[in-house]
Amino acid sequence: MDRKLKMRLDAYLAENLFEEEIFAAKKSDAPPPMACLSLVSRIKLDKFFEQNVGETFSEMLVRLIDESGEKNSDVYNRAKIDRRLFHRIISNKNYQPKKDTAVALSMALKLGLDKAKDFLAAAGFTLSKSKRDLIISFFIENEIFDVDELNDCLYEHNQNLLGDKKNSLSPPD
After folding, report:
1. What is the pLDDT along the chain (173 residues), one digit of tens a residue?
2. What residues contact 159, with CB distance under 8 A and at least 6 apart?
3. Distance of CA 55 to CAs 9, 49, 62, 123, 147, Å?
4. Is residue 46 in a domain?
5. How far apart are CA 96 and CA 89, in angstroms?
């Protein structure tokens, strides 16, 4: 990472990073959930989900690739994602990716911060105020969409890399 970029990132982290407080879990006074919903309640719940659940991560990925006019291979290669995993994601509309996979794909699609957050939210994730997520946010905000360069920076800051074994971007053996 060049010196100027490192200085900008260090300033960004200093401005945005804070120690997260850990709160002790409180016991809830709420009554236990009902063991079983009536058939009518289940039908109403299913209808509610149909009306309120937006596009899935997989559907959003396919749409964003179509809108970009790029080939699937360009996207998964830029994201450093295995072809088999990519095809598993786009062929299963309910596929639930790991956060790192969603981050890598958002970078490969060159999404701005707001769109990247929406994309991550479709997978059930967000970018927090942790040092690692702030580094990712910095790269996205500054339109630095190179996964290798991001990993170099994460390494320099002693953070888990995208594609670490526990955050693998490849399918399991």
Report:
1. 788 888 888 888 887 775 443 333 344 454 545 545 566 666 666 666 665 567 999 999 999 999 999 999 999 999 999 999 999 999 999 999 999 999 999 999 999 999 999 999 999 999 999 999 999 999 999 999 999 999 999 999 999 999 765 544 544 43
2. 131, 132, 135
3. 33, 12, 11, 10, 26
4. no
5. 8
Q: Is residue 69 assigned to a domain?
A: yes
Cα–Cα distances in Å, from 30 out to 16, 27, 159? 36, 9, 39
d(CA 171, CA 22) in angstroms, rounded, equals 33
Whether this model's pTM surpasses 0.70:
yes
The alpha carbon of 50 is separated from its chain's Cα centroid by a whole number of angstroms, namely: 23
**Cβ atoms 109, 62 nearer than 8 A:** no
Torsion angle of C-alpha atoms 145, 97, 76, 57, degrees rounded to 10: -80
Residue range of the domain that includes 153: 54-173
Residue 17 lies in a domain: no
State both tokens at 137.
């946010």
Q: How many domains does the chain have?
A: 1
Q: How far apart are CA 55 and CA 92, in angstroms?
A: 13
3-class DSSP assignment, residue 93: coil
Tokens for 31, please give them.
């009554």
In a domain, residue 7? The reply is: no
Dig out the tokens for 82 from the structure.
Answer: 């295995």
